[in-house]
Specification:
The chain is mainly beta. Helix content is about 15%, strand content about 40%. The chain contains four helices and 15 strands. A six-stranded antiparallel β-sheet has the order 5-4-15-12-7-8, covered by helices on one side. The longest helix has 12 residues, at about 60-70. The protein is elongated. The model has no long low-confidence stretch (mean pLDDT about 90).
Length: about 220
Amino acid sequence: WRCSAWEGEIAKAQVKGTDLMISIGGDGTILRAAQVVAPELIPITGINLGKLGFMTELSVAETKGKLSALLAGEGWIDQRSLLEAELSPEEAGDEPPAMFYALNDVVVARGAVARLIHVEASVDGELLTTYKADGVIAATATGSTAYSLAAGGPILHPHSPESLLLPIVPHLSLAYKMVLPSTATIKLRLSTTRSATLNIDGHINRPLSNGATVTVKRSSHTLRF
């Protein structure tokens, strides 16, 4: 079967029984393919048509020679950590919590208006700080070379189980970039009346209202390449 990576729900309906997913595009296409696959154990092989291709395995020139070997079961499996993010509404009784998987990052950030937002950050139930910033990023090791890196975060080994927590352009608040253990649970609570958004892997966006909470932890599932 084949499907546009931009038609996630249509693709997800066809995943059952799939042994291998081939993603043709760039890293953005890989991120969309990851949303289709997770939390299943279906491996993804990327053919790079983009500019960077950090997560794609094959160039167009290599495809003819190497794809047949992969289809024959040769090669190896590269497992990457996923984050689980649960979005809870401001008040109980509103719509139920929504669950997301992220290969790169979970971002709570300001909306269209260029104003700081306040995000109360807790780790394992203990209040860490209230960030006054453009936003806050929770990232995997895979995502440490994406938005997190642009925001000044460190690069983790791709197979590292740890996660990152860092603010985006903080103002008069804790500016440290933190590496957290794989067991850590992060809670980000929005404390502002200004518009804000939840962004998953750069292409899933949900508006956030004051009091909304995003709980992030390392998933028991992994993504396989």
